[in-house]
Amino acid sequence: MERLRSLLGILAAVSAVVGLEHVYLWERLVRATGLSPPMQLALTTGLCLLGASVPIAVITSRVVPPSVSTWWVTPAYTWLGVSLLMTGLSLVFEGVRVLVPALDRGTLAGGVVLASMALSLWAALEGRHVRVRRVELTLDRLPAALDGLTLVQLSDVHLGPTVGRRFMERVVTQVNQLAPDAVVVTGDLVDAPVEQLERAVEPLSRLRTVFGTFFVTGNHEYHAGPARWCAHLETLGVRVLRNERVALERGGAVLQLAGTDDADPAGRAEGFGEDLDRALSGREVSQPLVLLAHQPKTVHEASRRGVDLQLSGHTHGGQLWPLGWLLRFNQPVLSGLRRFGATQIYVSNGTGHSGPPMRLGSPAEITQFVLRASRASVDDTASAPHIGGQPGASVETPSAPRPGVGRLRS
Q1: pTM score over 0.85
Q2: Bridge-partner residues for 243, per DSSP?
Q3: What is the pLDDT of residues 212-223, one digit of tens each?
């Protein structure tokens, strides 16, 4: 029931926002421009049909397999992106008109349409590419033996009607080229049930790491059958962290990796829910701890509990202007690296996209973290007798996970 209420809430919210948006566009771009009655009728009819296509696409994407629904959902969501840009630009142009009263509404409407078409093309092209973003982070408690350990983060892939298997294959190829020690997937991997996306998600089994691939749920998993997804991902060699913690060990040195269920209340329908106390229970406080939590707002509690680093997603970096401004009201970080007390948090822009297959000013990313020990840790190690291999050494044996370099302890 909780899950159904959540889905109905999403549909109601989308319908309300899209409806208001299209009424505004009609007022500014049709009614106020002095067009002929036949042209106004044609444009009004077109706006009504385009506006209705979006909530219909939301319903379609939930009940029809992605291989079928993509033919309807992709153009409808693309229009959603175009209309969002039109609305934002229309508001900007209205501000220009206040400064330059001589500009007539017809000229402004034409400028809005042309500018939004140009930005939409740019956003559609930007939405097709995924960059690798390298981030070096110093963790004060990281032992020198783990200096140089690499984590690769994937987040918000959103496999479904607009993101498919070929995209996942390209991402896996890019990740394997980075030879990571571990891969972490911070939620919103999928947008449809297991039976509809088994083939699309299968390339995850080909990831090559030292310690393995780790996953935590996002809010979108809660609408796609989270229990079944967690079980299926385990069959692909992905370790699901549900309010629990594991230890990545190399040369006697340990990095603790914890993961929580997403905090969205829709998860309660299947017994899911964020429990940071449980995830951190029994931790060794002298060892560094990295927390995987889908939503950035978990950082407030993470900071109070002495987490060294939190990796999150959820926001998509705003994905498409002006959505980023709205997300700032609900999340403490929109994108990139921030510090809350002694806790660092990195929020990924996301690897795929949700809704419109477009991005503007928030490029999709695969994030490569290189963890560095503090200078004090390195100096302490340098002054002590060294036994064994070089700190940070790794082996490129292609298996998943790669044996003989590190050890995973639950």
Answers
A1: yes
A2: none
A3: 999 999 999 998
